[in-house]
Structures are given as C-alpha cells and as structure tokens.
C-alpha cells in the first residue's frame, strides 16, 4: 500500500504510519526532481533521522521515498553547510548503515547497504530498531557488525557503534567532533553498556589524559585531566555543586541514565568559568524521544550486589510534540571487598519535553540517594612500600561510609526567533546533603602493622543555583557560514559544613589484621564542635563566534569572569559558647579569558587543528599585610590531527599540548598562616585516541597518554601521577550463522609507576588490569557476563599521601540481562 502525504502532514504522520504498517512509502508532493541538483544552505542539528530527512526534503523540494521503518531507530549526523539535497541526505545518513539511491522514476530513495558489500568493505549495517513495532520487525535477526548491546543503548548512541559523531557541549551548538578545533573525548552508551561499566570511573578509563585519584580514601573518587586535579563534573553542561562541596552526585549517575560522557580538554573557561586548567567532565543524560521504547535491566555481582533498572521513553500526545523519559535504578549489596556495608544507590529521574518547529521546552527532576562504603584501602609502611596483602575486614565499623542525597530540578528552553535567531535559557537548582564518617591512620604502619587511627565525623549541606542564557545567531555571508553566541551565566551556592565532637577520637591499632573494636560514631548525637558557612557566586559574560568556510573551521570566544566569596567559621565549646569569625576578607576576583581555535581539513578524511585557551581559578589564600593572592591564570597551547576513516566508522585523534598556570600558592616561610605566589606548574604531553569499527563485528576504543607534569618553582617536588597511561577495549561478534548473536570482549588498562607522597620510599609500580566479557543477543533479549580484573592484581588509584591509598576492585563477576519492548 502506498501512502501519499503532503509536506504539511508528513511530520505528524510518518512515524505513526511506519509503526502501524511496519513498511510504508513516503512521497513529498513538491516541485520537480530537477531541483535536486541546486545547492541549499542547511543548519540541521543531529536528531531523529526521520525528522532530518523530512526537513531536508521540505526545504529542498525534492521527491524522496523510503521504507519508514528503516529510519525510525536512527539518529542523523548534523547537516551544517551548503550542499545539494543529495549531499545533505548523505551527510545525514553517515554512520547509519543506509545509503541514498535513485529510482527508475528519477526520485530518491533510501535503502540498507547491501550485506555483501558490508562484509567486503567493513561498512556497518543499520542500527537496531528502537520503536516497539520496528523492534518486532527486526527481531528475527541481530546486527552482527555493531556492538551487541540493547536497543536503548544503540538508539542513544545514534546507531553508530563506538563512534560519537557530534557534540553540543563545548561550542553550545551541535558540531561534528571532527570539525571542532579542540580535543573533545566522548564515550557513548554503546561503549558503556558493552563494558558493563557501573561507575563514572569505569567510563573514564577510555579517555586519554584522565587519571583517577582516591580522595585519600574518602568519599567519591576525584579526577585529574592532563595532570590537573579537581576536574569539575557537569551534568548537561551545567554545574550541580560549588567548589567548596565535598562532592557531587553527578559522579554517581547510574550508567543506564547516561547517553555519553564527554571530557573537554584545556581550561574550557567559556563553558565552566573557574574550571581547573586540565579540563572538565560532562555527563549527558538520556533525553526524551518521540519513538517509544522501553528497557528493563537486571544485574547481579559478587558480594551480593544486585541492581534493577528501568528506562522508558516515548510520545504522550498523538502529534508527538510532548515526550517523556523516565529512568529509575536501585542498587544494593551485602558488603564490599573490605567488609564494609555494601554500596547502595537509588536514582529516580522523570523528564518531560515539548518540541515543535519553533519551541523546545524540557523540564525534569532527578534524585540520587546513595551510601558509599569505605573503599578497599592499602596502607603504607614506615619502612617504605605498601602492604601487599589485601585487608578483608573493616578497620573501623562496618557502617562507616559516605551517605549522600541530592535533588536536582532543571529546565531548558529554546525559542526560534525567525530564521536566524534562537534564544536559549537553562537553569537548575541542586540541594545536596552529605555525611562523612569513619577512621583513618595518622601515620604509616609500624613494623607490627600498627598505627593510631583518628575518627572523622562531618556533615555538609550545599544549595546551588545555576543559570545560563544566550542568543544564538546563524548567518551565511556568501560561502562563509557563521554561528554567533552572546550570553550570560550565573551560579550561586551556599555551603555549610559541620564537624561533630566524636570526630577526633583516637584508637591505637597494634595490627591492622587484628584490629580492636571501634567506638560507634553518632554524628549530631555527640554535639557540634565546629561549623563552616560559605557563599560562592560567579558570573560570566561571553561572546563566541563559529565560522565555516569550505575546509576551514574557526571557533573563538572571550569571557569576562567575576567571582565572589564570603564565609564565617564557628567554634563550639563544651559549655555551648559559640565563637564566630570571618574566614577571610570578602573576596572578589575577576579575569578575562579568551579562547581561539582553527581546524583545516587536509583531505576528506584528515584534519589538522590548533588552539589557544586561557582560564582562571579564584584564590582565597591570605597574604601577609592583607588581601589574598591573585587568581591562578592558566593557558593551553594545543595542536593535533583528527581523522575519520573506513566510511566514518573509525575515528582517530592525535593531540600534543602544553598547559601552564601562574600564582601557585605556597606557604609563606616567614609568616605562618599566610601564602606567597610561585610559578605554578607545567603539564605537557600527547594523546592518541581511537574508536570505531575496524572490521565487520570488530569494534574498538583505545587511548594512550604521555603526560609530563612539573613544577618549575621546585623541580624536586614529587608528582603523584603516572607519566604513561593506556587502555584498550575491543569486542568481536561472531559472523557465522551458528554463533549469530554471540560476542566476546577483551580490555586492558595500564598505568606506569608513580610515586606517592613526597618521599621516594613510596612508589606504586606499573600496573595492568584485564577485563573480559561474553555477550549474547537474541531478538529483544541480551546477556553480558563480565569479569573485571581477571588476574586479581592489586590495582591502585593515584594518591598524595602514603598513609592510605585507595585500591581498585579485586576480581569481580557481573552478570547483566536486558530486555527491550
């Protein structure tokens, strides 16, 4: 049966007809096909493929026919530039496994890439369908070229396997990563699910230049990018915590809720204001989609770790303008490898989106309730080195740990103002409550493996508002296509920290392998001993220009940063007397931070780029004579190559960089309690990242990093990070009929030796972790058996103190099942 629809009705009917009929043909009643050779200018962001094709056909007035069920599951590549309609459609189809052909009648049609051609050329077949009906239609076969993952993960990855084609985080416009003149690393849902990644730390192993450190064994791990610690973790480009907070629940987002994790290298001041010099981490959450699909996920691991999760999305109204997404996850476990009560996490996230041709409104809420136990720890020995035997019992109480609750309310509003302008407004309000309760050694271990342990018992509250508003203008000046952004952002937060009287208790442990009983910590029940109350605010005005001219792609920006901070400290005596005093003079610092980058396409597959970025971090360190140190000023020079090969199935990035900053604060040797400014640090190195499909069924993501971090003001200072890191993850799906749907995965992550603390007595040797997986996918059902750290090696996070070092997990097994409907 042939269905003919006019241009006005196609948007509201094509998906419904495809679902109802499974196979249909769509024709545009428009001008003659002769207009297909005329060039048009397109500014179409990555999105559902069917909508992109509709927009191209409508604006170009070409006749296009296709089987609608082929495209419902797929996400288009961005189409931005001047092309003929055929070229625009081919851009949109990049990485989908579909191709454009001409019919005998002279119209255009879309078909699957021939299977035989796939086998010979390594071109991937189309991604798995996502809607309920299209999933049923395709249930008889399993695509054996792309990773064997669920429909939801395939859909949220754009149906392109391990390759992420575009990003809207850095430039605030949906721009192909291959045309962005800076280093942007992205790990999508396909990689995350194929690795059975459970934490942000698992995901970031795939990114060059990122090092995990244990936070001295306290709470959620921290991350360093290109050698610089305290990398901010954003959610959809927005902060959820102030710098004073103990942590952010963004790092605890369950992986079923994540569409991708991006790392923006360099100061990135245009995006994050006072971001550290190395870069920022951004978690992109899954968004509502019009085509319905639903996924149930259940996993079981060692130590009684059980997780149940549900992800559902679809349209609420018949015109598909109102959409929803709902993700819920609940994790619990008996105990961890050191005998503390197991980790528990609860996540609840409903989102609504209204989208028509001119207006896009998203509102949402998510709640995270977690309890993170004290992690597996290794203790340093006074004689040097670390205990090599894992401790399998708590050194403290089993209930010690780091509970957290975070509530996040957010909205995003986009309104087109004519054909050239779009107004964008985003905001979120985040409320975080945290506890830190446990015991830590005051010294390294004696010859009898003993040390005094001191209790810590604190709580904190963080209330944070973040706003971002900007106007986007798109104009073409002959062959030059420009996108201009002018905007303002503002964040303000209150941070309160409380220390309780039972903190500071000391228990002498004569042997950590036979510890005594520890007093139970009761928090507020023991009375308040100290309180810190701070308010931080920052504001930024920014201007950004993006221009494309044939092979040249330019991105430049300038930002004015304003930062304010004030606070008080309160001491509580046993008699209840409160002594309050300011933590320092009211702080106001400002800085201008320009950024500029240029990319040139050397060939169709390879581009060269270079950029210069500046950033700043406020300083509240007091100087003798009054006032505070000026802010740290950072700069980055970077150059590199980007390549997309094998019909865009394989992406490669090579980057060389140098990052430096000034005004490092160090203790004033003549005036105790004050600071002086020093030269800062220099981090230089190079990175290599590879992701995509090498052969049909063989998918890979890997990275290598060399980072040389030095502090010129004192070159003898020890750097507590490895110089060399690397990782590789590859999956292979068997191609013969007998083993259809079966695949295997193999991964490695490596770190060279690194020193801990300031003494050469404490060195962590080179380490190599190995992971393996066995996959099975049949129709809408999937199983993944993962074994992490197969050889049960002692793996360590980077650390700045030898007293205790956070360890990675021992050998663990995780079985995950998914069902799509």
Automatic annotation (TrEMBL):
A motif (TonB C-terminal box) lies at residues 804-821. It holds the Pfam family TonB_dep_Rec_b-barrel. SUPFAM superfamilies: Porins (SSF56935). It is found in: Cell outer membrane. GO terms for molecular function: siderophore uptake transmembrane transporter activity; signaling receptor activity. Residues 163-182 have a biased composition (Polar residues). CDD domains: ligand_gated_channel (cd01347). One of its GO terms (biological process) is siderophore transport. InterPro entries: Beta-barrel_TonB, Beta-barrel_TonB_sf, Plug_dom, Plug_dom_sf, Secretin/TonB_short_N, TonB-dep_rcpt-like, TonB_rcpt_CS, TonB_sidphr_rcpt. The keyword tRNA processing does not apply. It is a multi-pass membrane protein. Keywords: Cell outer membrane, Ion transport, Iron, Iron transport, Membrane, Receptor, Signal, TonB box, Transmembrane, Transmembrane beta strand, Transport. One of its GO terms (cellular component) is cell outer membrane. Residues 157-182 are annotated as: Disordered. Residues 62-113 form the Secretin/TonB short N-terminal domain. Belongs to the TonB-dependent receptor family. PANTHER family: FERRICHROME IRON RECEPTOR-RELATED, FERRICHROME OUTER MEMBRANE TRANSPORTER_PHAGE RECEPTOR. NCBIfam families: TonB-siderophor. This is TonB-dependent siderophore receptor.
């Amino acid at each position: 049966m042939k269905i003919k629809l006019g241009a006005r009705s196609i948007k509201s009917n094509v998906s419904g007809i495809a679902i109802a009929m499974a196979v249909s043909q769509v024709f545009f009643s428009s001008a003659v096909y002769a207009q297909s050779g005329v060039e048009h200018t397109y500014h179409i962001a990555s999105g559902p493929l069917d909508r992109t094709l509709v927009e191209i056909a409508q604006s170009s007035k070409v006749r296009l026919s296709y089987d609608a069920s082929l495209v419902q599951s797929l996400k288009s590549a961005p189409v931005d530039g001047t092309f003929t309609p055929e070229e625009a459609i081919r851009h949109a189809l990049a990485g989908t496994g579909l191709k454009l052909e001409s019919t005998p009648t002279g119209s255009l049609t879309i078909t699957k890439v021939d299977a035989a051609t796939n086998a010979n050329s390594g071109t991937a077949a189309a991604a798995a369908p996502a809607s309920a009906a299209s999933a049923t239609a395709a249930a008889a076969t399993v695509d054996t070229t792309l990773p064997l993952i669920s429909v939801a993960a395939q859909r949220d990855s754009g149906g392109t396997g391990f390759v992420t084609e575009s990003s809207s985080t850095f430039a605030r416009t949906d721009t192909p990563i291959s045309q962005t003149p800076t280093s942007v690393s992205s790990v999508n849902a396909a990689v995350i699910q194929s690795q059975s990644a459970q934490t942000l730390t698992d995901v970031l192993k795939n990114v060059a230049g990122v090092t995990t450190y244990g936070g001295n064994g306290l709470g959620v791990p921290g991350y360093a990018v290109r050698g610089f610690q305290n990398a901010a973790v954003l959610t959809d480009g927005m902060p959820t915590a102030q710098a004073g907070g103990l942590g952010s629940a963004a790092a605890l987002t369950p992986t079923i809720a994540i569409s991708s994790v991006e790392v923006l290298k360099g100061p990135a001041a245009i995006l994050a204001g006072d971001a550290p010099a190395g870069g920022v981490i951004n978690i992109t959450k899954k968004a509502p989609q019009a085509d319905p699909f639903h996924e149930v996920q259940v996993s079981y691991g060692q130590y009684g770790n059980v997780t149940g999760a549900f992800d559902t999305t679809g349209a609420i109204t018949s015109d598909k303008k109102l959409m929803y997404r709902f993700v819920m996850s609940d994790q619990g476990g008996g105990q961890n490898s050191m005998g503390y009560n197991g980790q528990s996490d609860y996540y609840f996230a409903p989102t609504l989106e209204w989208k028509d041709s001119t207006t896009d409104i998203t509102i949402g809420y998510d709640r995270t309730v977690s309890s993170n136990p004290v992690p597996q720890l290794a203790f340093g020995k006074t004689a040097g080195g670390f205990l090599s035997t894992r401790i399998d019992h708590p050194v403290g109480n089993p209930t010690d740990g780091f509970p957290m609750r975070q509530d996040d309310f957010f909205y995003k509003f986009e309104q087109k103002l004519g054909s050239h302008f779009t107004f964008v407004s985003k905001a979120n309000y985040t409320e975080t409550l945290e506890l830190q309760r446990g015991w830590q050694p005051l010294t390294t271990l004696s010859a009898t493996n003993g040390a005094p342990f001191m209790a810590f018992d604190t709580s904190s509250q963080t209330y944070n508002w973040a706003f971002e508003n900007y106007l986007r203008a798109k104009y073409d000046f002959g062959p030059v296509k420009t996108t201009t952004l002018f905007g303002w952002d503002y964040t303000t937060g209150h941070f309160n920290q409380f220390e309780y009287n039972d903190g500071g208790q000391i228990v002498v442990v004569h042997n950590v392998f036979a510890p005594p009983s520890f007093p139970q910590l009761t928090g507020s029940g023991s009375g308040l001993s100290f309180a810190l109350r701070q308010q931080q605010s920052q504001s930024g005005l920014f201007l950004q220009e993006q221009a494309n001219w044939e092979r040249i792609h330019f991105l430049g920006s300038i930002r004015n940063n304003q930062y304010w901070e004030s606070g008080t400290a309160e001491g509580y005596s046993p008699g209840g007397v409160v002594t309050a005093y300011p933590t320092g003079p009211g702080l106001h610092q400002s800085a201008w931070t320009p950024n500029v980058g240029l990319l040139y396409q050397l060939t169709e597959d390879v581009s060269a780029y270079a950029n210069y970025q500046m950033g700043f971090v406020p300083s509240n360190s007091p100087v003798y004579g009054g006032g505070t140190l000026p802010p740290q000023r950072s700069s980055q020079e970077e150059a590199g190559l980007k390549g997309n090969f094998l019909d865009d199935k394989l992406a490669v990035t090579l980057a060389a960089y140098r990052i430096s900053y000034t005004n490092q604060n160090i203790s004033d040797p003549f005036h105790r309690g004050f600071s002086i400014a020093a030269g800062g640090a220099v981090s230089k190195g190079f990175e290599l990242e590879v992701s995509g499909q090498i052969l049909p069924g063989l998918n890979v993501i890997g990275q290598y990093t060399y980072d040389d971090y030095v502090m010129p003001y004192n070159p003898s200072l020890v750097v507590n990070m490895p110089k060399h890191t690397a990782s590789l993850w590859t999956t292979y799906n068997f191609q013969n009929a007998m083993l259809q749907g079966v695949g295997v995965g193999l991964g490695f992550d490596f770190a060279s030796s690194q020193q801990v603390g300031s003494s050469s007595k404490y060195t962590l040797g080179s380490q190599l972790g190995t992971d393996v997986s066995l996959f099975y996918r049949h129709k809408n059902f999937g199983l993944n058996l993962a074994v992490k750290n197969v050889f049960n090696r002692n793996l360590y996070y980077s650390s700045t103190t030898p007293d205790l070092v956070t360890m990675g997990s021992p050998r663990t097994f995780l079985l995950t099942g998914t069902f799509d409907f």
